[in-house]
UniProtKB/TrEMBL annotation:
It holds the Pfam family PK_Tyr_Ser-Thr. One of its GO terms (molecular function) is ATP binding. SMART domains: S_TKc. It is found in: Membrane. One of its GO terms (cellular component) is membrane. Its main location: membrane. It comes from Solanum tuberosum. The chain crosses the membrane at residues 559-582. The gene is LOC102592051. This is non-specific serine/threonine protein kinase.
C-alpha cells in the first residue's frame, strides 16, 4: 500500500512538471485555467472528442471560448454530460458565461466556491439534475445579470444574499423544491433592476411580504404560481407600474383582492385562480392592456355580472369558473373585438343568454356549464361552440348540440413543402424543406400566452418564422424549424414540441447544439409578444458526427517544442503507468470474482451495475431449486408480466417469483431501473422486493410472499375471506398509507400509475400492501424534468385528465384510489357491461338520504351495523378523489387523514391499526377521446381487461 502511494505521488509530481513544460513552451491557454479544465475532462462523461491536448484555447475544445489565453465561456447544452460540478471551477477567474443546460446527468450540489467567479455574468443550469441548497455565496457574483436554475431539484430557501445581485436582469428558480418564505430586507426587494421573477412550481410558504414591492422596481413578470403561499396579496403590488404578467394561481392566498391592482395599466395576463380569495370581485376597469384574466375557483361574494368586463378592450380570454357570479351576461361582452374564450362554468348565471349579432370574429368557445340559464338567443350558423350542459335550458332531454360536449380534436404540425415520395431512414426525420436529417428537439413552455384559441394556425406560423429568422445560417447552422402538438398542460402552460433541422448536412455538431441551446436558455431568442414568458426543455442530442479525438487539429510549432521537451518525462511515466496498470488489473479481477453483479456491464445497453439496497441477485439455478423446477404445484397466478410461482428460501422464508414471459421482457436498462426503484421501498404497506434474477435470458423479480392474495379476489368471494365494513376501512387506510409513502417519502417520488384492487395484496393479518410497479414512473425522469409520458394504465381506474393531456401527476394515483374506494363499497368492477361505476353512482346520489340513495349498489356482504355517517364520509372522500381536475383532488396525505377520521367515527383506532395490520391500456389515442365517454364505454363493452 505504501509503495503504491509513493508511486502515485511520483506520477502526480511528474504530471505537474510535464504540464507546466508543455504549457510554457507551446500552448497559449492560461496554465491556471487548464489545471481546472483537465479534471473536468476526466470527471465528466460524454465530453466532446475535441477535448484533447493541453491547449483548449489555441487548439480549441468545443464549447470553450477564450480571450487572450483566458477561458471566458463554457457552453455545453444537450450533450448528455454526466458528473458533478467541481469546486475547482473557481479557478476560472475570467469566466463570464457558464451554460450546462439540458444535461440531466449533471448532479450533486453547487459548490460554495462558485461565488468566487467574480467575472460571471451568465449562469444557466436549466434542466439538469442538480440538488441540495443554493449556496449563499451566489450573492457574491457582483457581475451576474442572468441566473437560471429552473428544472432542477434544489431544496431549501432562496438565499437572502441574492439581494446583492444589483445587476441581475433575469431570475428563474422555477420547478425545483425550494421552500420557506420569500426573503426580503435583505432579499428579493433589493433587486429593483430585475425584470423577471420566475419562481413557480416550488414549495414556498408564508405570506407575500408587503415590503417585497416598491415603485422603484422595474419588474415585468412575477410568476409565483403553484406554491404554498398564504395570506393576502399585498397592496404594494400595485406600485410596480411596469408589471405585464402576474401569476399567483394555485396557492392558498385569501382575503380580498386589493383594489390597487387596477393601477397596473400595462398588465396583459393576470392569473389568480385556485386560491381562497373572498370578499367582492375586484373592479379592474381601466386595465385596457389585459388580454387574459383567470380568477376561477375562489369564493367571492355573490354579485351581479360585472359590466366592467365589457370594457376590457384587449380581452381574449375570460375564465371565471366557480366564482359566485350571478345575473344575466350583457350581450356587449361577446362583441369585444379580440375575444376568443369565455369560461363561466359553475356559477349562478341565469335568465337568457343573448349573444349579439356583432360578436367577435375570433370567438371560439362559450362554456356556461352548471349555471341557471333557461333560454338563449343567437344568430343561426354561429362559428363558435356553446356549452350549456346542466342548465335549465337543457333539463328536458334536449338533443341540441349546446346541451352536450363535442370533442374537438386539433392536431398541428408545421407543413412541409410537397415532399413527394421522400423517405427517410428509420431514425431520421423529414424536415419542412423535405430533407432527411437528425433534428435537435425539445419542448417549448409558454407560461402565460395572451391567447387561448389553440386552433389558430397563424400563431404557430408566426412563431416558426420568428424562430427561423433568428437562427441565421451564418450564425446558427439551421435549415428549418418545425412546431407540433400544441396543448395546455396541467399548469395551463402552452406546450409546443420543437424540432430544429441542421443546415447543409444531416446532423449538428456540438457547437451548433450549444449555440441553439444557449439562444433558447439565455432568452436570446425573443418570441412574438403574444407568447409571453417561456422556457425550453431540451433533449440530449445523440447524432453528432463520428470522429476520433484530436482529428483535424492544427499542430503548432509550440506544441512540437513542448512535446520534445516533455518526451523524457512521458517516457518515465509510461514505465510507471505500465506497472500500475498490471497491478490494477489484478485488483479488479479479484473484485470481479467477489462481485455478484460483475457480469452486468457485459450486457449491451444495460446502463451499468445496479445500485441496489438490500436485495439479492439470485442465480437461475437457485430459483429453480426454490420452486421445485417451477412446478405446477407452485404456480399461483399470472398477469401481463408473466407467471407467478411460490417458493421457499433455505431459511424458510416464503417468496413469490414473477417470471417474465418472452413477449413481456424489458430491455436490460429498463429492468435495471425497475429493480433499483423497487429496492428503495421499505414500508409495511408496500410489497418488499427480496431479489431478482437476470441470467440465462431470464428476468425474474422475487417478492415477499403475501398469503391472502389480492383485494380483488376477496371482494369477488374467490378467496373465501369475508370483508366487513371495518376490515374494508383498515384495508383502505393501509393502501392509502402505502401510496402516500410512494408520493411523499420516496426520493424522487413514485407515481404508481396502476392502482386497482388486483394490485392491493392482503397478508395473513389482512394488512394491505401496494404491489406491481411495472408501470410506475418517477416524478423526475432521466430525460425530462416533468412527467409527460405515453398513456398507460387500466381502463376504469385511469385518470381522465392524464388520458387527455398525457401529463402524469401524483393526482392521477389519487383518482385511481377514488375508484378503488367505490370498489370497496360496491365489490363491482369499475366498468361492467359498458357502464362506468363512477358515473352511475354520481348520477344516483341523493345526499338528503342516509345512504345517499345508493343502497342498491352497496355490496350485500357489508353488514347492516355500519355507521351511516362514516359511510357518507367515505363516499364523499371517494368523489373528492374523483374530481375532474387534478388540482381539486386531495393529496394522499389528506386522504390518509380523512380515513383515520372516518375510522374514529366507527370506534376504530387507526394508530393501533398502523401497528397491526386487466389488460393495461397502452399507447396514445390519436383523437384523445374522454376515456369514459359513452362512445368509449360502448367500445369497451364485452371486453375483459386483466393485467
Amino acid at each position: 500500500m505504501v509503495q503504491t502511494r509513493t508511486i502515485q505521488l511520483i506520477i502526480f509530481c511528474l504530471l505537474i512538471i510535464s504540464m507546466q513544460v508543455l504549457v510554457q513552451l507551446g500552448a497559449s491557454t492560461n496554465s491556471g485555467d487548464y489545471v481546472v479544465l483537465e479534471p473536468l475532462k476526466e470527471e465528466w462523461e460524454n465530453i466532446p472528442p475535441s477535448w484533447d491536448g493541453s491547449d483548449p484555447c489555441n487548439d480549441p475544445w468545443e464549447g470553450i471560448d477564450c480571450n487572450n489565453s483566458r477561458v471566458i465561456s463554457i457552453k455545453l447544452s444537450s450533450i448528455n454530460l454526466k458528473g458533478e460540478l467541481s469546486g475547482d471551477i473557481e479557478g476560472l477567474s475570467e469566466l463570464q458565461i457558464l451554460d450546462l443546460s439540458y444535461n440531466k446527468g449533471l448532479t450533486g450540489s453547487l459548490p460554495q466556491s462558485i461565488g468566487n467567479l467574480k467575472s460571471l455574468s451568465i449562469l444557466i443550469l436549466v434542466g439538469c439534475g442538480f440538488s441540495g441548497l443554493i449556496p449563499n455565496t451566489i450573492g457574491s457574483l457582483s457581475q451576474l445579470e442572468y441566473l437560471s436554475l429552473n428544472l432542477n431539484n434544489f431544496i431549501g430557501p432562496i438565499p437572502a444574499s441574492v439581494g446583492n445581485l444589483s445587476k441581475l436582469h433575469w431570475l428563474d428558480l422555477a420547478d425545483n423544491k425550494l421552500s420557506g418564505p420569500l426573503p426580503v430586507s435583505p432579499g428579493l426587494d433589493m433587486l429593483v433592476h430585475t425584470k423577471h421573477f420566475h419562481l413557480g412550481g416550488n414549495q414556498f410558504s408564508g405570506e407575500i411580504p408587503d415590503q417585497l414591492f416598491s415603485s422603484n422596481m422595474t419588474l415585468k413578470h412575477l410568476l409565483l404560481d403553484q406554491n404554498q403561499l398564504t395570506g393576502k396579496i399585498p397592496p404594494s403590488l400595485g406600485l410596480v407600474q411596469t408589471l405585464e404578467v402576474v401569476r399567483l394561481d394555485r396557492n392558498s392566498l385569501d382575503g380580498s383582492i386589493p383594489s390597487t391592482l387596477k393601477n397596473l395599466a400595462l398588465m396583459s395576463e393576470l392569473f389568480l385562480s385556485n386560491n381562497k380569495f373572498t370578499g367582492p370581485l375586484p373592479n379592474l376597469a381601466g386595465m385596457n392592456a389585459l388580454y387574459y384574466l383567470d380568477m376561477s375557483n375562489n369564493t367571492f361574494s355573490s354579485a351581479d355580472f360585472p359590466q366592467w368586463f365589457s370594457t376590457l378592450q384587449s380581452l381574449t380570454t375570460l375564465v371565471m369558473e366557480n366564482t359566485q357570479l350571478q345575473g344575466e351576461i350583457p350581450p356587449t361582452l361577446f362583441s369585444l373585438f379580440q375575444l376568443q374564450t369565455v369560461n363561466l362554468r359553475g356559477n349562478k348565471i341565469n335568465g337568457t343568454l343573448n349573444i349579439a349579432s356583432n360578436y367577435s370574429s375570433q370567438l371560439k368557445l362559450i362554456d356556461l356549464q352548471n349555471n341557471s340559464i333557461d333560454a338563449y338567443t343567437v344568430r343561426p350558423g354561429f362559428p363558435f361552440q356553446i356549452i350549456l350542459m346542466h342548465n335549465p335550458v337543457c333539463y328536458e332531454e334536449r338533443s341540441e348540440d349546446y346541451c352536450g360536449i363535442s370533442q374537438t380534436n386539433f392536431v398541428y404540425s408545421t407543413p412541409q413543402e410537397n415532399c413527394l415520395k421522400t423517405q427517410c431512414s428509420s431514425d431520421q426525420i423529414l424536415s419542412p424543406t423535405c430533407k432527411c436529417a437528425y433534428p435537435y428537439t425539445g419542448d417549448l413552455f409558454f407560461r402565460a400566452p395572451s391567447f387561448s384559441d389553440l386552433t389558430n394556425t397563424s400563431i404557430y406560423e408566426s412563431l416558426q418564422k420568428s424562430m427561423l429568422s433568428s437562427f441565421s445560417p451564418n450564425q446558427v447552422p439551421v435549415d428549418s424549424v418545425s412546431l407540433s402538438n400544441p396543448k395546455k398542460n396541467s399548469e395551463y402552460y402552452l406546450v409546443l414540441h420543437l424540432q430544429v433541422f441542421p443546415f447543409g448536412q444531416d446532423h449538428f455538431n456540438r457547437t451548433g447544439i450549444a449555440t441553439i441551446g444557449f439562444a433558447l436558455s439565455n432568452q436570446t431568442y425573443k418570441p412574438p409578444p403574444k407568447f409571453g414568458p417561456f422556457f425550453f426543455s431540451g433533449e440530449s442530442y445523440k447524432y453528432f458526427e463520428v470522429g476520433s479525438r484530436g482529428t483535424h487539429k492544427s499542430i503548432t510549432k509550440g506544441i512540437i517544442i513542448g512535446a520534445a521537451a516533455g518526451g523524457a518525462v512521458l517516457l518515465i511515466l509510461s514505465v510507471i503507468i505500465g506497472v500500475l496498470v498490471c497491478q490494477k488489473k489484478r485488483d479488479q479481477e479479484a473484485i470481479r470474482k467477489s462481485n455478484p453483479f460483475a457480469t452486468w456491464d457485459s450486457i449491451k445497453d444495460s446502463g451499468g451495475v445496479p445500485q441496489l439496497k438490500g436485495v439479492k441477485c439470485f442465480t437461475f439455478e437457485e430459483l429453480k431449486k426454490y420452486t421445485n423446477n417451477f412446478s405446477e404445484s407452485n404456480y399461483i397466478g399470472s398477469g401481463g408480466y408473466g407467471k407467478v410461482y411460490k417458493g421457499t428460501l433455505p431459511d424458510g422464508q416464503l417468496i413469490a417469483i414473477k417470471r417474465a414471459e418472452q413477449a413481456s421482457k424489458q430491455g436490460a436498462l429498463e429492468f435495471k431501473t425497475e429493480i433499483e426503484i423497487l429496492s428503495r421501498f421499505h414500508h409495511k404497506n408496500v410489497v418488499s422486493l427480496v431479489g431478482f434474477c437476470f441470467r440465462q435470458g431470464e428476468q425474474m423479480l422475487v417478492y415477499e410472499f403475501i398469503p391472502n392474495g389480492s383485494l380483488k379476489e376477496s371482494l369477488s368471494g374467490k378467496s373465501g375471506i369475508k370483508l366487513d365494513w371495518k376490515r374494508r376501512l383498515r384495508i383502505a387506510l393501509g393502501a392509502a398509507r402505502g401510496l402516500q409513502y410512494l408520493h411523499d417519502h420516496v426520493d424522487p417520488p413514485i407515481i404508481h400509475r396502476d392502482i386497482k384492487s388486483n394490485n392491493i395484496l392482503l397478508d395473513e393479518r389482512l394488512t394491505a400492501k401496494v404491489a406491481d410497479f411495472g408501470l410506475s414512473k418517477t416524478m423526475y425522469e432521466p430525460d425530462k424534468g416533468y412527467v409527460s409520458t405515453q398513456v398507460k394504465g387500466t381502463m376504469g381506474y385511469m385518470d381522465p385528465e392524464y388520458y387527455t393531456t398525457q401529463q402524469l401527476t401524483e393526482k392521477s394515483d389519487v383518482y385511481s384510489f377514488g375508484v378503488l374506494l367505490l370498489e370497496l363499497i360496491t365489490a363491482r368492477s369499475p366498468i361492467v357491461r359498458g357502464k362506468y361505476i363512477v358515473k352511475e353512482l354520481r348520477q344516483a346520489i341523493d345526499k338528503s338520504k342516509d345512504m345517499y340513495n345508493i343502497d342498491e349498489f352497496v355490496d350485500p356482504a357489508i353488514p347492516s351495523n355500519m355507521t351511516p355517517i362514516s359511510f357518507r364520509k367515505f363516499v364523499d372522500l371517494a368523489f373528492t378523489c374523483l374530481e375532474d381536475a387534478g388540482a381539486n383532488r386531495p393529496t394522499m396525505a389528506e386522504v390518509v387523514k380523512e380515513i383515520e377520521n372516518i375510522m374514529e367515527i366507527d370506534g376504530l383506532n387507526s394508530c393501533a391499526e398502523s401497528r397491526s395490520t386487466s389488460v393495461s391500456h397502452e399507447g396514445t389515442s390519436a383523437t384523445f377521446d374522454h376515456p369514459y365517454s359513452e362512445e368509449s364505454l360502448n367500445r369497451y363493452n364485452g371486453v375483459t381487461n386483466s393485467r
